[in-house]
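TL;DR need structure tokens for one chain.
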Amino acid sequence: MESDSEMVPFPLLTTPIESNYGACTIPYRFPSDDPRKATPTEIAWIDLFRNSISSFKKRAESDTTVADAPARAEKFAQRYADILDDIKKDPESHGGPPDCILLCRLREQVLRELGFRDIFKKVKDEENAKAISLFPEVVRLNDNIEDGEKRLENLVRGIFAGNIFDLGSAQLAEVFSRDGMSFLATCQNLVPRPWVIDDFDTFKAKWSTKSWKKAIIFVDNSGADVILGILPFARELLKRGTQVVLAANDLPSINDITYPELVEIISKLKDESGSLIGVDAKNLLIANSGNDLPVIDLTRVSQELAYLSSDADLVILEGMGRGIETNLYAQFKCDSVKIGMVKHLEVAQFLGGRLYDCVFKYNEDVGS
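>> reply
TL;DR here they are.
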């Protein structure tokens, strides 16, 4: 993790940041709530994080890079459950009151203190290999759609389908370990439009008339998400002359893709001439976002990403953690898209939608 002194605010946030930006979308409490008593929303979210402990423990137990992994995994489960119980009793303990960033950070801290660096490494590697083998076919199916607007819709559906590979969701982790997930079948089975937030038609109209010079895409999960969802979309932007910067995590967190992993994947997908299946990829850059969580606070990004972003005119935040649970209402000095699938019932209820509903939020720039 980069030291605090090296982290800077994302330069495209509307200023003044203090009065315009709050990272977390769902308020767990209001100023009128008793600071010493957990609110019903806090309790619901603490329970959601507690429900994921068993799937994290299972991954940790089988981490061959850690000595005494089963015993340490048991310690993780106990220690994190105790922390959650403490916060329920006293919301101001452990750096509270809690929000989704704090609950994620505490989980990562406990894992790292016990020597677990990347408990999802094995499944990430397996899913990346599978998705790399499917990439040419997914690109071919998209390229065969001659109508530009229909192709765009197919690419966006691919982002939603890929985004379902999320092992931070207890339910999905169970489905995944039971029978895996078929990317193309998921594309066909998305909930019908209109989605719970659906600005896709506005974006589609803009796509026909506007080309962006530089897009920053905050990526989410490894496997089908980044390789079959985001990369075909990024390739389409490259075809249109847009420079694309993919911003990936500095450190591992759940099954999110990291910067070193993404660099390796792109090098495997490019041919000898540096193309992504017939599209020159010299304008495709990969940046280390400086982040180490499955959610992101945009007041703290790496200097490298800030430098690369300063002249961008499109920001895309993909995935439930970065684009819905945090940053759904973030305002930018340029066009922005928040896109992801709703994989927690609590998020669906907050938005007034269905579980596995889709969010496509498009905002034109609001100036500085």
